[in-house]
Amino acid sequence: LWMKTRSIKRFASVAKKYQFEYYVHGDDWINNVQSESRKKLIEVMKVWEGKVIDVPYTDGISSTDLASKL
């Protein structure tokens, strides 16, 4: 499931709804405006033993640009 959410507050609510086994996100959210959403997501996913996976940020590659080509 490719999820593009405009509201950073929605990560946890969407995860609750679908109970993802894994949630993959670029590691740029660890220390930016989305860091609180990440913490909440990790907390929520622990309930069903889901895992948040942070992949290394790649400078110059935009997930928004990639998604627009799908």
What is the rounded Rg? 12 Å
Number of alpha- plus pi-helical segments: 3
- Distance between termini? 13 Å
Largest sheet: 2 strands, parallel
Strand % is: 5-15%
Task: Give your account of this protein's structure.
It is a single chain. This protein is of the alpha+beta class. Helix content is 39%, strand content 14%. Strands 1-2 form a two-stranded parallel sheet. Strand 1, helix 2 and strand 2 form a beta-alpha-beta unit. Helix 1 runs parallel beside helix 2. It is globular. The mean pLDDT is 84.
Quick overview:
Helices cover 39% and strands 14% of the residues. By secondary structure, the chain is of the alpha+beta class. Strands 1-2 form a two-stranded parallel ribbon.
Features:
70 residues, alpha+beta, two-stranded parallel sheet, 3 helices, 2 strands, globular
Topology:
Layout: H1 10-18, E1 22-26, H2 35-46, E2 51-55, H3 63-68
Parallel strand pairs: 1-2
Helix pairs in contact: 1-2
